[in-house]
Write a structure and sequence with these properties.
Blueprint: H1 27-34, H2 40-44, H3 53-76, E1 86-92, H4 99-107, E2 114-117, E3 123-127, E4 132-137, H5 146-155, E5 158-164, H6 175-187, E6 192-197, H7 207-221, E7 228-229, H8 233-245, H9 252-255, E8 259-262, E9 264-270, E10 273-283, E11 292-295, E12 299-308, E13 327-331, H10 358-369, E14 372-374, H11 383-387, E15 392-394, H12 409-416, H13 422-442, H14 446-458, H15 461-479, E16 483-484, H16 492-495, H17 529-542, E17 551-560, H18 561-570, E18 576-580, E19 588-597, E20 605-606, E21 611-615, E22 618-622, E23 625-628, E24 634-638, E25 640-641, E26 646-654, E27 661-667, E28 673-683, E29 689-703, E30 707-711, H19 717-722, E31 728-730, E32 735-742, E33 747-752, E34 762-769, E35 777-778, H20 784-808
Parallel strand pairs: 1-4, 1-5, 5-6, 6-7, 16-29, 24-29
Antiparallel strand pairs: 2-3, 3-4, 8-10, 8-18, 9-10, 10-17, 11-12, 11-18, 12-13, 12-17, 14-15, 19-26, 19-28, 20-25, 21-22, 21-27, 22-35, 23-24, 23-26, 27-28, 29-30, 29-34, 30-33, 31-32, 31-34, 32-33
Helix pairs in contact: 4-8, 5-6
Family: Belongs to the TRAFAC class translation factor GTPase superfamily. Bms1-like GTPase family. TSR1 subfamily.
Keywords: Nucleus, Ribosome biogenesis
Organism: Drosophila arizonae (Fruit fly)
Length: about 800
């Protein structure tokens, strides 16, 4: 038998690289390691049933069908004969556009359309072709009516924005249109539809270019929207089809609550109080008759009863004879009605208190006797002028939050009153004389001088000086954040007795219930705000009360007659908007909102500066404090809200459950409102810790290998011993601590982890918790902001007049 020859590999045999599975084992390696072993989880838990292909396909079809049914149900909740009509806000984006002309085009879009107009100005259109109903409202347009436009858009389903091609390609939105668009985009635009008018009035050769230019402009603001032409009846019908068929944009803040746009409003007085009857279509969620309602400009009220009058805007009125009478839907129960109490009444005897001893009473009397009356008189004031300044009582050892600023700020304030400074008067006289000589030399006509005087009269130079000073302080705080000079006349351990050092700002503990102000006894707090929000919103959707879509009349009880008269005199339209409040939404709490500066606003906002805040359906005046919007349980206090920054504002306000859009307004010198920031509601949590930081700086005098002698941080030996446990940091990143005091003038020996540089600076970080001030003021009348602005303007004018009289004297 012949031997078989086998192939033997030679030295040049190819060897492939082994497969690298990384840090984990491959599937083959795992199978080899197990060798048939069964895992413990596989024995103790049931295997998931493996669905076949037909079962998976059937499950996907069921999910698709459920989602389609849900979308159809949401569509059928609006526009039908038995539901609320589509509420459309016709908003001209140019002051010269007449919105009534657009309404006339829509009224003539179909021969079978039924048009009815209510006494308040709402135009109802019934379109049998689409089997849909529409309601069109036109808000007042023009400068000063921005807040009314915002209130209208909160409850509308669609926004019909009107533009015109007659003003050219550069005037698609005028100045007012740009201003109002910034506001409504920050609040949320409900289902926008853009219509271009007056395209037939221009040259036919330029129509295509004009429409393309308008589309290009709109695409930058609303990328998903396609502009529609509206000049003829057929184009108006296309707009109606678009409004009734497009997908609606949901504004969750309004959709989570019942809301009603009042079409018919009647006030029945009963002495000083009265009942306000508001009739309209209920939208959003179901209404609880025992809950509270909020009317922007009037406040929070209770409901007496809810009626259901016959719907006057139905297309099929054959059964009006059967349902002509007004039906009572529900009446409130006084035992179940929500109380209007918004603040907690603290018990003064709740805290543990002991009676003071005689020694403590005598010590307190001595401290009271130490008070002295001081009078702060600006530089340059005469004795006669100083006599008009009231005395200010100052208690020794008094500590105020304003003292946390630079101690030299008071002297700067006195020097800054340049209108009352003699040196400033001399400079003004010299400048006037030089100006007169210059005008005479150039033979300038008297008309130019008159124009200059008129220009100067229109300018508010006091506001300019305040803005300049604010810019300088913000710039200083940006260059040297939180750094202040240690006072020479007051020991540092007394000046900063409320501050403490932290080992680490991120990880060091800080008790949120420690040293709370007395105002915290007046607010309400949830154990877990997020969990409460989810529960209340879920209960609001499942609540079976007065269903949305019905035409109802709300009886709002106990409305003061004086407040209603002020509201009617300041209100430019006959409509009233009513919101149903969720549980706890009338109780006071600490509100935290995230704000982002508007690009057009460039002046820094100082902390505790007055702002007008619109949060969801409420509008109020507060003085917020700002902090960094960061993760963690502690947040650094910000002295200024600078342009292009995002911060978290904290203030006292009624509870409101997010999501909610937030707009911040500031009063201009000309009594108008300027949008300075936009954002969203973060939470209503009083436990948010806002820490104000103070940085004390020192300079090395002698530098050794591991130690250095630091001076100018303290000026007393007691201060060095008091702040010895606090860590030191340097500008170059060195870490150290105080070893001992040298001498009696604040010099100290400090050890660092490495040798200091000669140009290095030692810092000590101190922190204290700050709280907002209780200065919440609700805007009870829509024009209350304007009256407040007029009051402030009048005060500025009076102070300016007094300054002029003082200069003449």
């Amino acid at each position: 038998m012949a031997d078989h020859a086998f192939h033997r590999p030679g030295p040049l045999k190819q060897t492939n690289k082994a497969h690298k599975t990384g840090r984990h084992r491959s599937k083959g390696a795992i199978d080899n390691a197990l060798k048939g072993k069964v895992g413990l989880k596989a024995i103790s838990h049931k295997h998931k049933l493996q669905q076949r292909k037909e079962q998976r396909r059937n499950q996907m079809n069921q999910l698709r069908k459920n989602k389609r049914d849900e979308v159809l149900q949401q569509k059928r909740q609006l526009g039908g004969q038995n539901t609320a009509p589509f509420l459309v806000c016709v908003l001209p984006m140019h002051e010269q556009i007449d919105a009534n002309s657009a309404i006339a085009i829509l009224q003539s879009c179909d021969s079978e359309i039924v048009v009815e107009k209510s006494p308040s100005g709402v135009v109802y259109m019934n379109l049998p072709r689409f089997k849909q109903r529409f309601a069109f409202v036109i808000p007042p347009v023009g400068r000063g009516n921005e807040l009314l436009v915002l209130d209208y858009l909160k409850v509308c389903d669609t926004t019909l924005m009107l533009t015109s091609a007659a003003f050219g390609d550069d005037e698609i939105f005028d100045r007012w249109g740009q201003r109002i668009f910034n506001m409504i985009s920050a609040q949320g635009i409900p289902t926008p539809v853009v219509a271009l008018m007056d395209l037939e009035s221009i040259n036919p050769k330029r129509r295509t270019a004009a429409k393309q230019a308008a589309q290009k402009f709109i695409s930058k603001l609303l990328p998903e929207e396609k502009i529609m032409q509206m000049d003829t009846s057929a184009e108006g019908l296309n707009v109606m089809r678009r409004i009734g068929g497009q997908k609606k944009r949901v504004l969750h803040n309004v959709n989570n609550r019942p809301n009603l746009f009042g079409d018919i409003v009647e006030y029945v007085p009963n002495g000083e109080m009265g009942t306000l009857k508001v009739t309209g279509y209920l939208r959003g969620q179901s209404l609880n008759v025992n809950g509270l309602v909020h009317i922007p400009g009037l406040g929070d009220f209770q409901l007496g009863q809810v009626d259901a009058p016959p719907d006057p805007n139905k297309l099929d009125k054959s059964r009006d004879g059967e349902l002509a009478e007004v039906r009572l839907l529900d009446r409130s129960d006084p035992a179940k009605q929500t109380s209007l109490q918004s603040e907690n009444i603290p018990d003064p005897m709740d805290a543990e208190q002991t009676w003071p001893t005689e020694e403590e009473i005598e010590a307190a009397q001595k401290e009271t006797k130490k008070t002295k009356l001081i009078k702060r008189v600006p530089k340059g004031y005469s004795e006669y002028q100083a006599a008009w300044i009231p005395d200010v009582e100052e208690v020794e050892g008094q500590d105020d939050d304003d003292e946390d600023e630079d101690m030299s700020g008071d002297e700067e304030d006195e020097d800054f009153m340049s209108c009352d400074n003699k040196s400033f008067e001399d400079e003004c006289e010299k400048r006037d004389s030089d100006t007169e000589e210059y005008l005479d030399s150039l033979s300038i006509t008297s008309e130019a001088a008159v124009n200059d005087e008129k220009y100067d009269q229109q300018m508010d130079f006091q506001e300019e000086r305040e803005t300049l000073k604010k810019l300088q302080l913000a710039r200083t705080d940006q260059l040297w954040p939180d750094e202040i000079d240690t006072p020479l006349d007051v020991p540092a351990h007394e000046r900063f007795q409320k501050y403490r050092g932290l080992e680490s700002f991120r990880t060091s503990p800080w008790d949120p219930k420690e040293n709370l102000p007395s105002d915290y006894a007046r607010i309400y707090q949830f154990k877990n705000f997020d969990r409460t929000k989810r529960r209340i919103l879920a209960e609001a959707k499942e609540f079976e009360g007065i269903l949305p879509g019905l035409y109802i009349t709300l009886h709002v009880i106990n409305v003061p007659a004086s407040r209603w008269n002020a509201f009617r005199s300041a209100h430019l339209s006959d409509n009233v908007i009513v919101y149903g409040l969720l549980p706890h939404e009338h109780q006071m709490c600490v509100m935290n909102v995230v704000l982002q500066r508007i690009p057009d606003s460039e002046v820094p906002l100082k902390s505790k500066e007055q702002l007008i805040i619109q949060c969801g359906y409420r509008r109020f005046v507060v003085n917020p404090i700002y902090s960094q919007h960061t993760n963690g349980d502690k947040h650094k206090f910000e002295r200024f809200f600078r342009p292009y920054e995002t911060v978290c504002a904290t203030f006292y306000a009624p509870i409101q459950f997010p999501p909610a859009a937030v707009l911040a307004f500031k009063v201009n010198p000309d009594s108008s409102l300027a949008l300075v920031a936009r954002g969203r509601l973060l939470s209503c949590n009083p436990d948010r810790i806002v820490l104000k930081r103070v940085v004390l700086s020192g300079h090395p005098m002698r530098i050794n290998r591991k130690s250095a002698t630091i001076r100018y941080m303290f000026f007393y030996k007691e201060d060095v011993e008091y702040f010895k446990p606090v860590k030191l940091r340097t500008k170059c990143g060195r870490m150290g601590h105080i070893k001992e005091s040298l001498g009696t003038h604040g010099h100290m020996k400090c050890y660092f982890d490495s040798q200091l540089r000669s140009y290095d600076t030692a810092f000590m970080y101190l922190y204290k918790r700050v709280f907002p001030k209780w200065n919440y003021e609700e805007c009870l009348v829509r024009s209350a902001e304007h009256s407040r602005q007029e009051h402030l303007t009048e005060a500025h004018r009076n102070s300016k007049q007094l300054d002029d009289e003082a200069m003449e004297q």
